[in-house]
Design brief:
Blueprint lengths: L10 E5 L5 H10 L6 E5 L5 E2 L5 E2 L6 E8 L11 H17 L4 E3 L3 E3 L4 E12 L2 E12 L18 H5 L5 H20 L3 H9 L8 E5 L4 E9 L5 E5 L2 E5 L6 E4 L1
Parallel strand pairs: 1-2
Antiparallel strand pairs: 2-5, 3-4, 5-9, 6-7, 7-8, 8-9, 10-11, 10-14, 11-12, 12-13
Helix pairs in contact: 2-4, 2-5
Length: 254
């Protein structure tokens, strides 16, 4: 990426334990690490999801990975990156496990029994230019219901619970990186409509009635999809409204 598409390759480094693969990737990037680094951890003690929510998994039970990139893309389209990353991961889970997960905008991956994973993208800028991005990915692989804390047990799931199969973390990572590479190449080639179409194949809230909770108001409407900047489109009170992920504190079904 970033004028080196033919030279960039993923360099995978495995860690037994870390506070957060995303935090470590950011630290490495700030010290001059080149794009293409992939950090994979058996355990992370300070894993985070969107809005700072904690993410902790039993050692070896999940795919916990962060990818450092520096894509050549206009800032207006950075909102697509968590979506195409989620679509790449959902497609990979389906390919490796045989069950088809779904995506809930902007970054959650669900099975029939509950949430199995998510995406967290972090960015750094310098002089209003993108310096680098870190794409963090977490997927519950082998957990049973008893492995989850009681407070989330009813809404959490894993690939094993959904498919009955224990899949290889390394195989899932390999397939995911391939799909992610393809999606990032399409992003740099400005094939936005193709990326939106692919995301829509995994979108499980399109056509559903939802409640959007923001700082000062709530909106109820029907999801009509996403636009080419990764924004959520919602039809409410006879008009279509568009939302950035940063505007929304919570999204719930009605």
């Amino acid at each position: 990426m970033n004028n080196q598409a033919s030279k960039l390759y993923f360099r995978i480094e495995y860690l037994s334990a870390i506070d957060s693969t995303n935090l470590e990737a950011v630290r490495r990037a700030e010290r001059g690490e080149a794009p293409g680094l992939v950090l994979v951890a058996d355990f992370q003690s300070a894993g985070r999801g969107r809005l700072g929510r904690t993410w902790e998994a039993k050692p070896g039970s999940s795919l916990l990975a962060s990818v450092l990139i520096s894509p050549d893309v206009e800032l207006d389209y950075l909102g697509l990156i968590p979506l195409i990353s989620g679509a790449s991961l959902a497609e990979s889970v389906a390919e490796v496990s045989g069950f088809k997960p779904g995506l809930i905008w902007p970054n959650d991956i669900f099975g029939r029994r509950g949430k199995i994973g998510g995406i967290l993208v972090e960015s750094r800028f310098e002089n209003e230019q993108l310096k680098f991005l870190v794409i963090g990915s977490g997927v519950n692989l082998s957990q049973t219901k008893e492995d989850f804390p009681e407070e989330i047990r009813e809404r959490a799931s894993s690939v094993f619970l959904e498919s009955g199969r224990v899949i290889s973390r390394d195989e899932l990572l390999r397939v995911y990186l391939g799909h992610l590479w393809d999606a990032l190449e399409k992003l740099e080639a400005k094939k936005f409509s193709e990326l939106v179409e692919n995301y829509s194949e995994w979108d499980i809230i399109r056509g559903k009635e939802i409640r959007l909770m923001m700082v000062e108001k709530e909106i109820v409407g029907i999801v009509s999809g996403i636009d080419e900047r990764g924004r959520l489109k919602v039809k409410s009170e006879g008009k279509e409204m568009i939302f950035f992920a940063g505007e929304i504190n919570m999204l719930r079904g009605v």
